[in-house]
Amino acid sequence: MSKLIIIIGVLILLLTGNSNGQVYHGFPTIDGYWKVQYGYVSCVDIHGVSDICSEYQYIVTGDTLINTELYRKISLSGQDRNPIDETWTYWNTGYHGCYRNDLAHKKVFYVPKDSINEILLYDFNINLNDTLPETFVYNQSEFSIIIVDNIDSVLVNNIYLKRYHLDNAGFGQKYLIEGIGSTLGLLSPITPFFEQHYDLLCFKNNQDELYYFENDSTDCHLITDIKDEYFLMNNIHLFPNPAHNRFTVENKLNRSILIEVYDPIGQRVKVTKGQNSMTTINISDLRIGIYLVKISSEGIQIKTEKLIKE
């Protein structure tokens, strides 16, 4: 009897293990943070120790509508390293592009800055021995053929995410991870580099409590001087969502804000100036559907969030 119990237990564990990672996890829908490191031979310091050129970060800063589709905006900022005196210089390019989850087909699409045309960014509907499809980060004709030679799952904060090992994608272990992207970085090119390298240092998705660290790194803090944009965004909250007849915007910035509501075709249907810590907007006259709430202050767009009217 004891042997039978052991056998049954092993079978249950095997079945459980095989089922892990089968539920597809899309990219962040509210917040998200990718920190990337870039190195090149020309950046080797005078001691010949480090070849790090820069570290930079992509941060989800809100939603936007393009051709009636909802996208998540990302900003880009970082710091460059001087290999001679080891000093770092901060830079911030602001809005860098936006992405859209296609959960039904396990794909992520990207619209670069100053464009309205989307490009396939990641395709997670791939199988063992498949050739990596061409995307924004991988061009087969320009580089080389990359094959998915192993598929497993990685445990990230008690959640199994499917992981695809990429053969011929450079030195070390290179993967695609659903819900995160590439271990080279969110928008880093996937190709076998020899004199340069990209590494995803960490990924955070606070909403789903996902925290991923690469290269034994435990540093997933924001690079300094990003505080303005990130501080503004995280001190504005919209609730309830979904909403029925009204919703409220909580403002912890101690300054006035402009609240604008747009319908799915981009027409502004509400505008309110919020002077207090709490501003309630009546939407009882709006049709049931999905709207976009844009919040700005002193000419700076702080946050854009999808609002569902029930």
Question: How would you describe this structure to a colleague?
Answer:
The protein has 310 residues and is mainly beta. The protein has two domains: 33-213, no CATH class; 235-309, Immunoglobulin-like, CATH 2.60.40.10. Helix content is 8%, strand content 47%. The chain has two helices and 19 strands. It has helices at residues 2-19, 227-233; strands at residues 33-40, 52-66, 69-81, 88-102, 107-112, 119-123, 147-156, 159-167, 175-177, 181-182, 196-205, 210-213, 236-239, 246-251, 257-262, 268-274, 278-282, 289-297, 300-309. The strands form four sheets. It has an eight-stranded antiparallel beta sheet with strand order 6-5-4-3-2-1-11-12. The chain is globular, with a radius of gyration of 22 Å. The termini are far apart. The model is unreliable at 1-21 (pLDDT under 50).
Tell me the layout of helices and strands:
Layout: H1 2-19, E1 33-40, E2 52-66, E3 69-81, E4 88-102, E5 107-112, E6 119-123, E7 147-156, E8 159-167, E9 175-177, E10 181-182, E11 196-205, E12 210-213, H2 227-233, E13 236-239, E14 246-251, E15 257-262, E16 268-274, E17 278-282, E18 289-297, E19 300-309
Antiparallel strand pairs: 1-2, 1-11, 2-3, 3-4, 4-5, 5-6, 7-8, 8-9, 9-10, 11-12, 13-14, 14-17, 15-16, 15-18, 18-19
What pattern of helices and strands is seen along the backbone? HEEEEEEEEEEEEHEEEEEEE
Query: Can you tell me the overall shape?
Result: globular
Q: How big a fraction of the residues is strand?
A: over 45%
Strand order of the largest sheet: 6-5-4-3-2-1-11-12
What fraction, in percent, of the residue positions are helical?
under 10%
- The DSSP helix count reads 2
Whole-number radius of gyration? 22 Å
Major sheet attributes: 8 strands, antiparallel
Number of domains: 2
- The overall pLDDT average reads 85
The rounded distance between the terminal residues' Cα atoms is 56 Å
Would you identify the regions where 5 or more consecutive residues have pLDDT less than 50?
1-21
Structural category: mainly beta
Number of strands: 19
